[in-house]
Every structure is written in C-alpha cells, then in structure tokens.
Amino acid sequence: MKTYSISQLARAFGLSQSTLLYYDRIGLLRAAKRTAAGYRRYSENDRKYLERICMLRGAGLSLADVERMLSGDSGPSVAILEKRLGELGDEILFLRNQQHSIAAMLKNMTSHKCVTVIDKKMWIKMLEAAGMNEESRKAWHAEFERRASEAHHEFLLSLGIQESEARDIQEWSLGKL
User: Pfam families, alphabetically (predicted)?
Assistant: First the structure.
C-alpha cells in the first residue's frame, strides 16, 4: 500500500508541514504509521481525508466546524453549511456595500464616468422602464428560478439583496409565498 511522507502530502495539497503537524497535534489528521525513526507515514485514506479537510477549509469553515463535519453525523453538517452560507451572504452584502461606497467616492473624486453598480432599486427601475409590471416581473423571476435556481439566487445576491430576502423572492416567484 502506498504511503506518503509529511512533505509529500503537504506539497500535494499546497500546505506547510507545520499545518500537518498542527492537524496531528489537535487530532484532526493523524498519520496512519510511523517509521522506526519516528517519521510520519500517511496512508491513501489519510490523503483522502486531508482532501476533504482542504475542501471544507476552502469553503471557509473553521477547524472546529471541519472536525464536526467529518464526525459523520449529517445533522450538524447541514446546520454548519447553512450557517456558513448565511455568513457568506452577509460577507457578500458587506462587500457589495463597500463597492457602492468606493464607486460613489470615485465618481465624486474624478471627472471620469465610473461604472455604475446595479442594485435592487436600479434593477426594478430598469424593469419598470421596459414596461414590466409586478406580474411580468414575477413571471421573469419564475422562469429564472425554473431554469437555473442557483444562478437566480446568486443574481439576487449580486443586487445587494440579503440572503433571507433572496430566498423569499425565489419562493414568491414560484407562488410559495
């Protein structure tokens, strides 16, 4: 069976050896074996486990949440992912607000025309100017939701709409509200 040294495993995942030593110290990832000289040797299962750790860390989960996710109990896993998704929605909204602020500052500071950031209010005005009333906007949202629910959700968030309101709009467009 193939095994990996700490340096091979660290290099394969773009991590430092000290990160793997830390994971070992906190009990998150322990080497399957040790050589006679005490060097860690990681198994293929360890490599797959580290791949899952890296995927979860890449999604922005804390080490404590990663540990809970990998415990095997799906109940907390769903709650952890839902919590992280909400946090990301908040971060996106925060960044969108910063983007609006910077665009406004640039517009005030320069004579050059800045790119306007489209937000919810502007989007509704554009749809109304195109002759769309609430019923036709609902049909537009329903079609977007039916064809690409995740893209519809991301679009709503890109307008600076909060996570909960975006979900409400999705449900409204399908007649669930």
Answer: MerR_1
* Number of neighbours of residue 44 by Cβ within 10 angstroms: 12
SS3 40: strand
Helix axes 149-158, 134-147, angle to 10 degrees: 130
Q: Has residue 75 been placed in a domain?
A: no
Same domain, yes or no: 89 and 38: no
Report pLDDT digits (tens) over 27-59: 999 999 999 999 999 999 999 999 999 999 999
CATH number of the domain encompassing residue 35: 1.10.1660.10
86 shares its domain with 131: yes
What does pTM read for this prediction?
0.60
Residue range of the domain that includes 117: 82-173
Sheet bearing 40-42, strands edge to edge: 4-5, 40-42, 33-34
